[in-house]
Fold this sequence. Notes:
Distance between the termini: 105 Å
Strand content: over 45%
Structural class: mainly beta
Number of helices: 1
Radius of gyration: 36 Å
Shape: elongated
Amino acid sequence: MTTFGFDDYHTRVGDNTNFPVMWPAWYAFQNPPETSYSQPLILDGDYFGKDRPVVIAAIGKALCGFVSKQAKPDGKWQPNPPVWSLPLKGDGPTKSHPTLVDLNGRKLVFIGTEHDSAVGGAWLQVFDVTDFDHPKEVFRDWSKLIHDVVSAPVVYNWCGHLVVITTAGDTGRIVLWLGLDKLKDDGVVSTGEITTGYLALPGRTSSTPSIVKLADGSDGLAVGVDQGLYSGKLAIYKFNDILSENNGKVHLKGKDPFRTIDLPSGLVASFSVSGDRTKLYFGDCRSRVYCYDTRALKGVWVNTAVAGTFSNRSPALLPGTVFFPAVGGTSSGDVNSEGRVIAVDRNTGKTMWVANFDSRAQTAPAVWAVNGYGSIVLEGTRGIPGKSSPAMALLDAGTGEKYGYINLPVSSSGGSYAAGVSGEISVAHDHLVVTTNEGIYAWSAIPIDLEAVSIDSGVPKGQKAKVGQKYTATVVFKYKQDPGIEWPLDKIPVAAFHVIGDAINKASLKDETGAPLQVYEGNKQQVISLNKQGDTVTVKFDWTAQPGSKKLVAALNTFYPDIMNPKLVRYYPELTEKNNLVSVNIEVEGLHDVKATLLPAKTVWKTIPGRDVKIIVTGRATRKDNNGSEIPVRFTVSGPGGPVTKTVRLGPGDSERTIYTFTTSTPGTYRFRAEAWPADSSWEDAYPPDNVAETTVRVEVVQLPPKDSKIHAELIGD
């Protein structure tokens, strides 16, 4: 079975992903766009005889099938119309998720519908997609006792009989669809061949049920009950208590829960389940996170770190961690409040980290587990008009650190349940698919790696650069790794920089013929092209040695100097950017470097009226370089009392101190300055910005207390 949360345990951990880089691949939406709440199913293409992965998802009032498209190097989404689109019943887009079940080689998709006013109830529909290009509906039935089906249908084999279980949305019922055994063969089931059984609970049942193990080894059914913000229940049924077999058919024999557990808030969303089916992990609608033992019938732990925040979404589960989304706000109508994701230690219930967003956390988290790279938590957000756009956040699973956001070109406006990333996130088979309020967006993993190989400054080997001399530097860039397919990249941003002191000066790059590199208008960067693995490009740039020249830097496809202040930007996602930058240090001939510092004894000086205070400031000239013998330095410290200047000779590492004093009784702020410069033309300073230092001190006058004639002192002797 493949269903909500990627497997029967609803863990939401993506499998078969090998590369930590996703490229935009394709999109699909109706015209006009319709909302998708569906958890997409990403399936191996070989399973259906296709050479690309297959995606099944609901968009609006249709179940759609897609064959994924390969991403393109331009990084743009391509339109990808569905191979087929099958109508779903109901008045609006379904909130149910498709469940795929393989029955003796027959591939069936089960899905529920939104309320249908034409019949006064909701539907269960089943489609045969074995022949992916020619799917067909094989079962449809409705019940007026349920309002809508928002859960993923659970398909369960009880004593050889096919039982389908759905919850009922705005009504407090669980529906058991019985008599569907013909679906295990090639048959089409008519409504007259099935029966429906109902289990009633005191509240709203919207969570997807989960199969659990009980103390006697038998199977049970866990369901959440939503009774509002301040009351809820966890209900557990024992299958052998509610089902029986008679004349080869299955019947409902009992309706009572095996156990109900009271909760302080409604249990709206679904569960994640441990591999042995004895532990349930879930959160209530006030964002308390729980672990419950179905064998011992008792709670293991409760985490309340983000309690009080509304949530109607489900957790994701790694072997040591539970990831739960606190959607945002105190009620479902509070659509513009911030959401969070909390990571909870699966064994102890302790908080590991909390990640905050500037808009609602709209989806259940999905974990992108990448072979050899670790795990990334994905969370879809709503976005707030004028503040942030709908986006998918990428979080480090171990620390909660945000790797970044992937913005989606969809609207952040809409109802409390339908804006931005309104559906769910799926990761599998090197693909990522997200459902939104305007359709589907998909990515594919492509293992690109570009490298800045080397930089030669152009200064002859064994020599130092001469001030004022122009040199030509040479840089080599390389296509280190590609996906093994034809994947040329033609807009790779590249740049080179001459670092002079603290200043970063961008150079103009040329090709080997001396022609300037092309500038891409999209980001105003010079760019190169690389066609396949092993290809290299050599570029050159001119630079002139300065007294403060420190180094030359060359880089491609990365943020430099950093993402907040980029002189170079990233255009293509890569496996790693650690090899995207190369640098070479510059030594300038005959240069020395002197630094001035200034340190007051105190920054605040206090005195009483009419009394002077002596301010003391220490200036120091320090030789920073180790180049040659002593050099003459003119050292000046100045302040309110005028300048004090002296000429000293400093050897490598030497320093000279000047104590500057100034006496005053006037309150205020006083400024002081130290300067260290060449005393003659025998040398140049390598880095003038640190040849000057300044500081200020403040003088405060403290008022004495008033005289008091009643206070006196006496000397008393024996």
